[in-house]
Amino acid sequence: MNRIIKVLLVGLALLGLLSGCGTTPNSNYYLLNSGTLDVPTGSTPSLGIGPIAIPEYLNRNTFIYRRESNKLHINRFERWAEPLDNGIMRILRINLAALLDTQNIQSFPWSSKQRPEYGVGVTIVTLDANESQAVLVAEWHIYRPQSSEVVVRKINRLEQVISANSITASDIERAYSKLFFKLSEIIAREISGDIKNRGKE
What we know:
CATH class: Alpha Beta
Number of strands: 8
Strand content: 25-35%
CATH superfamily: ABC-type transport auxiliary lipoprotein component
Radius of gyration: 24 Å
Mean pLDDT: 86
CATH architecture: 3-Layer(aba) Sandwich
Helix content: 25-40%
Largest sheet: 5 strands, mixed
Number of domains: 1
């Protein structure tokens, strides 16, 4: 009887060890961050953000970045808390609302009866990071949703230094957030310039 009990105890101990070894690490979740910005108080111009397009390889909630020149690393346990295209749209809304001091902002698609004065469409060509820097290449355009007229269309390559010996998800999130703020500043300047030019007409 004692022998049977010992065998059972040994078996239970082994099962405990095996289950411990097979435990899946907890995932960490991240959001793109706008930093500290003033809350907008104005109501003009009216802005519409979208559509936003991202490459298919980024269409996942796990972090993906470059470890070597031609190899991408997927970190299964470091995740975006929302679809990346939704996060980009959200952060552009927050940034542009603050930079242009307007609360009159909405996301694509919008009602045909409430079309904004300016629409901002963005296609992400590259969004990547390595152990020294993060890179954003974005093709974007400002348009008038009421007439479909394109005000300006550009491609920008933006870089952000990552000062870390080994890249982490936190490094990537901070770098990406800064890159999208830089892009927002460029877009905001173009919209402000167009508003001034139209005022002179």
